[in-house]
Amino acid sequence: MIGWKSTPISNRGDCRGLDCMDFLLDVAAVVIPHVQPYPAARSIVICDNVSLHHAFGGMLKAMVEAKGGKLIFLPT
Question: Which end of the chain, N or C, is surrounded by fewer C-beta atoms within 10 Å?
């Protein structure tokens, strides 16, 4: 189990928080290297339904599935 929480970026003008590309780059660096093909250990990635997790046409899902893993979203 990897318990990971991104750290929000500081103010960028009127923008606060972590943008979608920063999030995906962080996931690619921190989480994806540990994903194993399903049903092995570390083969399931669980996320809540925040819009950031669905960004870029499902890029997060594509990254997880490219490693053979499964992405599961918590119920809303």
Answer: C
